[in-house]
Amino acid sequence: MTLVMGAVAYDPKVVTIWGGFRAWLIEHGLPFDFVLYSHYERQVEDLVAGRIDAAWNSPLAWIRARRLAEAADRRLTPLVMRDTDRDLTSVIVVRSDSPYKDVADLKGETVAVGAVDSPQATLIPSSFLAGRGLRPGAEVAIRRFDVGVGLHGDHIGGERDAARALMAGEVAAACMIDANHLLFGREGTLAAGSTRVLAQTAPFDHCNMSVGDTVPEEVMRRFGDLLLSMSYADPQVRPLFDLEGLTVWQPGRTSGYAALETAVDESGFYDGQGAVTAAGYAP
Amino acid sequence: MTPHFLDLGDLGFERGAHLLVQRALGELRPGTELAVTGRDPALLVHLDAWCRKQGHQVRRAGDTDDDVRAWVTRGRTDLDRWARAERAGGPDPGGIVAKPELHWGLAARGALVEPGGPKINADLVDRDFVWADIAPSLYAHAAAAQWDPAKAVHWDAEFSVPAEIEQAVVQVMTFLVENEQAALVIPARLLARVHPHFREVLQLLAVQAADEARHVEVFTRRALLTGGEMGTSSVSGRESLTTLLTEPDFSLASFLLSVLGEGSFLNLLTFLDRHAPDPVTRQVVKLARQDEARHVAFGVAHLQHQSTVDSSLRGRLRNAVEHRHQALIASSGLNQDVFDALVVLAAGEWTPQGIERGYAAVQELQAEMDEGRQHRLVRLGFPHDEAAELSALHTRNFM
């Protein structure tokens, strides 16, 4: 069988990345192909319906896929993830010269977040704030930057716009993933030293390769073993790893998704069976 | 206290702290821990994010780790990147390899090249086909001999030339521009096909193209100096030059252009120097001749080198001359206006005696060109009789 994987085309480089992986996998004896989706929701629905065998899923897509699969009595395996998908954190950032010393100081203020479906810049930080007694829409106002809705935060635009709003003084704080706080500081979106990390979430995990139960055990094992064997020292693989932002594939794990599961429930983004229930979410 | 300790002071990752971390890790073996401390408030957030991307592991310091904020375990991503790297030959001509890798691309010769990456679109990749040992010294000479058209020629020199002689000068200059444009395009095209590993050959071809660019300029400027129009361009002249542009083989193109064409031009420029009616014409042809002599020297040296490693070369050179002759057999050759202009220039006056003298001088020029071509063909290893035969087949357009 040819293993068919879904990937979301959040950027043109996705074609280069998966075209390159496809060639490598075929050279190593695994018939493999991929199809592109314009957003994660259709990809997840097709995975659970068995129309594709695997999906390169965002963490939010994994959560919906898992819920849909369980509701349909299907089984999904988080086969592998990037080393860089493990133990990420989000930060809540304020201007250095602002008076806020603690998260509680943001009470009554406006906080900028990313797109409605961004795990790292919206869902997890909102849940984090709620856990500190600042419920979005109640104790704090939320200003959302909906760039690339349906891409589950893969598009950096929402986070960058939130950072710009912070610099412009339009909001008291902005939420972003730790690596983007560094990136924005280095590229100048946030002038170096002009911001302060007010709070940092606990570590969470990001994407995984979700494989459906349509795939025979042997094929799934072969797929996983091949991905895990890819080496950064291989000149054919290295440019693809650089584009995809990993240095090695690691076994998938589900231990890092609890915070997002909670955030999804709190915000009513999906219901327990994986139906989309978020108000106004139309990718 | 750990022996591997880095204090970043107040420096944060938004201001370059990664350089110090990278340097400190670079001295460690993979798996070794580095203790990091510093006062930047965002240090831990950014150290985590940076190390994750670089393939290093971070653990935050415990309460008992005095003066340490985090421990970084060195990964091996940077080592893996260069694990299979290789040197692209050596920087000196002695380091030139017989067949450079296409994926070395535009890398400097002698650079440490990361494997992979795009292959350069060069098809002239064999040392024996493009290299000549004389190339580095010829390039150095060429670079030192560059002249500024604005300063090297006394454009405002006063002179007075009779109108019909001036017309002859203009016609010859028009002919020279046309030929120099062919001589500019050919090395420029070849240059883009040569693997950059043969740096000195690229440099030499680039200077050759730049030489021709200056020649085009000064000949045009001389033609227009007295306020008239350019002369004529014949179909036959352009036909002859077109056959040069279509020759894809580096050696054959070099042979037809430099050895035979520019070689004949050396005689022509000497002739024009001798019969120039004014100081500006004399200066521009003198300057051009210096450059052309270098082009001919490279062409001959390159082919001499190649004939030592390729026994079929002379046969191919012969075929190239015959093929070009066949292609031009129906062409009328040199523009009649050019021939007549040369006669008038050598005559210097419109009298029967003058024209007779001029005509004889042009015949002598053609004999000198033939002799020069034969001489260079003999240097390439052709027997005398074959050299004479091939020289006679050369285009009547001179270039």
Automatic annotation (TrEMBL), chain A:
Write down the superkingdom of origin: Bacteria
Mention any Pfam family matching this sequence: Phosphonate-bd
What's the name of the protein? Uncharacterized protein
Organism of this sequence:
Planomonospora parontospora subsp. parontospora
From TrEMBL, chain B:
> Which SUPFAM superfamilies does the annotation name?
Ferritin-like, SirA-like
For this protein, the record's Gene3D superfamilies field holds:
Ribonucleotide Reductase, subunit A, TusA-like domain
Gene Ontology molecular-function annotations? oxidoreductase activity
- InterPro entries reported for this sequence: Ferritin-like_SF (IPR009078), RNR-like (IPR012348), TusA-like_sf (IPR036868)
Q: Could you tell me what this protein is called?
A: Ferritin-like domain-containing protein
Organism the protein comes from = Planomonospora parontospora
